[in-house]
Write a structure and sequence with these properties.
The structure is a single chain. About 0% of the residues have low confidence. This protein has a 20-stranded parallel β-sheet. About 40% of the residues are buried. The protein starts with a helix and ends with a helix. The chain contains 24 helices and 20 strands. By secondary structure, it is α/β, with parallel strands linked by helices.
Length: about 625
């Protein structure tokens, strides 16, 4: 208390304008963290919310009652990013500001199309817009007129991400709605759209009920980046994109067929040779997902890849998923033709073998990102050859089941490696010791999910208490021989992990939760303080006892928790109510976003201070409720 008062007295001597200027350089969570330290900074924090230029708060979803005080009238607000999971149309007036240049609204499932109309009507100077899951909730409607009003009103847009299903819009006026889109638009991302709608949008003289001799003006003339999830990747769509978008540098197409595509609705060799007609493409991704059906690009073979490679010599990043008939000759052509390639991703490369990488050291390539997922013909020699790229930072070998300890020995030379994913490989505890000397200290993310030969010894093989650890994400899921002893060893090593996944581990139980809750990663933080994500779904030994250790003050930074919902539904619900900023998942869903797409580097200490400030004095009743539920559960037992 004396220290806080002394700090407050010191800050009172500083000009208020100076304090305000400094605090406007911080993010919202950091501002609230400062506000909790003394009266002077608390007063200053309340004032600067009226002229703060950026308001970014995506880690937690606030109700409008908690969010509204943080968003007072502010003519200087230019960037707003929030999670809208607990908001609806009644919040639109609090979110939409004429001053905004950058707007990101995630998880807008309870909003209707009115959101789009209001943005178009009020945000005339908007440069960047991200909208996620709009009108996903049953009963929420969105119409083509809402999209028209958005595009007509936001004439300065450069980046647009519509991450929801727009295939429900009627085809007959879909292309017309885009005729008023900003000519400055350089990046477009769409969550789901049909390939036919894309073709009609980008074709100057194609569309339902349109005379063949009537040419529409070019749509999206400045577009450089296009990312689409579609029903089918087709020749017609790829050729239309390649011809119509002359400035394209980044093309990312993904489909997930629900039935095996006919030849007229599929990708073939013919359209691959049309890619990069204008010679500006740097990043290409063509992926067939198996989300609904086990299916591949069966009409593309080595010839198609050879034809494509002729136009792609300046490519920097290539991702190919589901090309089951492409052999070593096709993949090798890419490596030898694209001299500036630094990122290579191949998934479901059923005919890809070690020979592709045998002479990679003789090329001029300097690969930094390599992903070879579900390539089951690969052996250790492929990784040994790849390890000649000493600048590798990301290596994804998930589900390459024939890779073992020899591959780990080669990986041990990659001292710049940040992300290593080894799910389902044939590695052992002894093999992991190769990583401890040079690699584990640099790794930020490691996944050994489903490596069946690993035991508790894998923890001691990886971690040395005396060495400094940078690891933030660790996935130990689906390890049948991992027990509480292994997690106790992890806690004892005080590894500052932010995200720990242990789902589907039958021997993991309450002792693991207690060990993690008691862990201190340094001498100044509270118990279990580093964990942000903890996945315990379907762990065999978890009982109601664990819920005692999932309450506050334990795990103060925890934002995502995975448990088995049927364990005790009342207790799970009570925990969620007692920790309103904690996302409790009980149906087996993967936690957070796709956590392998990027690195989580944010310190959540400030976020905990924000939670304390917002909920000051409100959580005692919830804790008492959880105690009652737990006591009732014990009586039943």
């Amino acid at each position: 208390m004396a220290t806080s008062e002394a700090a407050g007295d010191a800050f009172e001597q500083l000009p208020a304008a100076l304090l305000a200027t400094i605090m406007t350089k911080l993010d919202v969570s950091s501002i609230r963290s400062l506000a909790s330290t003394c009266t002077t900074l608390r007063s200053c924090a309340s004032q600067i919310l009226h002229f703060l230029p950026n308001f970014h708060l995506l880690d937690v979803a606030l109700s409008i009652n908690l969010l509204r005080p943080l968003l007072p009238p502010n003519p200087y607000l230019s960037s707003l990013k929030v999670d809208c999971s607990k908001l609806d149309d009644s919040s639109i007036e609090d979110l939409i500001r004429p001053s905004l240049h950058d707007l990101s609204l995630h998880n807008c499932s309870d909003f209707s199309g009115k959101l789009l109309s209001q943005i178009g009507g009020q945000c005339k100077d908007l440069r960047s817009l991200y909208l996620g899951c709009v009108a996903d909730k049953r009963g929420r409607a969105i119409h083509i007129s809402n999209l028209e009003e958005l595009l007509r009103g936001c004439t300065e847009l450069k980046t647009l991400s519509l991450m929801f299903d727009i295939s429900l819009f009627p085809r007959y006026n879909f292309a017309q709605a885009w005729s008023s889109a900003s000519e400055n638009l350089t990046s477009l991302e769409i969550g789901y759209v049909s390939s036919v709608m894309v073709t009609e949008l980008l074709s100057p003289n194609v569309g339902p009920n349109q005379p063949p001799d009537l040419l529409r003006p070019s749509i999206l003339p400045s577009l450089q980046r296009l990312c689409l999830s579609v029903d089918y990747i087709t020749d017609t769509m790829v050729e239309t994109i390649s011809k119509g978008l002359i400035n394209l540098t980044h093309l990312d197409l993904r489909d997930a067929p629900i039935i095996e595509p006919r030849v007229s609705f599929d990708l073939t060799n013919a359209s691959l040779q049309q890619i990069n007609q204008h010679g500006k493409l740097k990043h290409l991704s063509l992926v067939r997902s198996q989300e609904f059906l086990i299916t591949y690009f069966r009409r593309v073979n080595d010839l198609g890849i050879l034809l494509m490679a002729d136009r792609c010599s300046s490519m920097e990043s290539i991702c190919l998923g589901g090309f089951c008939r492409v052999t070593d000759s096709g993949f090798k052509t890419i490596l030898h033709s694209c001299s500036t390639l630094y990122k290579l991703r191949v998934s479901h490369g059923m005919l890809l073998t070690n020979l592709v990488f045998l002479d990679i050291s003789a090329t001029s390539l300097s690969l930094t990102h390599v992903s070879l997922r579900w390539c089951n013909l690969l052996r250790n020699q492929a990784v040994i050859s790849l390890a000649s790229n000493l600048d590798l930072r990301v290596l994804d070998l998930r589900d390459c089941r024939n890779l073992g300890d020899e591959a780990l020995q080669a990986i041990s030379t990659l001292h710049k490696l940040k992300i290593l994913l080894l799910d389902g490989t044939d590695i052992t505890d002894a093999g992991l010791t190769y990583l401890r000397e040079r690699v584990i200290g640099s790794l930020v993310s490691l996944s050994i999910r489903g490596c069946k030969r690993l035991t508790d010894k894998c923890i001691s093989a990886l971690f040395d208490p005396s060495s400094k650890q940078e690891l933030q994400e660790l996935d130990l899921s689906n390890l049948p021989n991992l027990s509480d002893n292994g997690i106790f060893s992890l806690a004892k090593n005080r590894v500052p992990i932010l995200e720990l996944r242990m789902r589907q581990c039958p021997l993991i139980g309450d002792i693991s939760v207690m060990a993690l809750a008691s862990m201190q990663v340094d001498d100044y933080r509270s118990h279990g303080s580093s964990l942000r994500v903890l996945d315990l779904y379907n762990c065999g030994g978890i009982t109601t006892l664990s819920f005692r250790w999932l309450k506050k003050p334990y795990f103060p930074r925890l934002r995502w928790l995975g448990v088995t919902g049927s364990l005790n539904r009342d207790m799970v619900d009570a925990l969620a109510r007692s920790r309103p900023f904690l996302h409790v998942a009980g149906h087996g869903e993967e936690l957070g976003t796709d956590h392998w797409d990027g690195l989580y580097m944010h310190d959540n200490e400030e976020l905990d201070e924000l939670e304390q400030w917002l909920l000051e004095g409100e959580d005692e009743s919830d804790d008492e409720e959880m105690e009652d539920v737990q006591n009732n559960g014990e009586m039943v037992e």
